[in-house]
Amino acid sequence: MSKVSKKSLIATAMVGALALVGSNIAAADALTDLQNAEAQIFKQAAKSQAKVNSIYEQTQDLIAEYRNTVDEGEVLRGYNDHVQRMVNDQVANIASLQKQIDGVDKVKQGVVPLMYDMIASLEEFISLDVPMNLERRLERVANLHAVMDDSNVTTSEQFRLVLEAYEIEAGYGTIFDAYQGEIDLGGRTLTADFVHMGRVAFVAQSLDAKHSWLWNNETRLWEELGDDYLKPVTDAIRMARKQLPMNLTKLPVFAAGAK
Question: What would the mean pLDDT of 122-127 be, rounded to a whole number?
Answer without folding.
Answer: 95
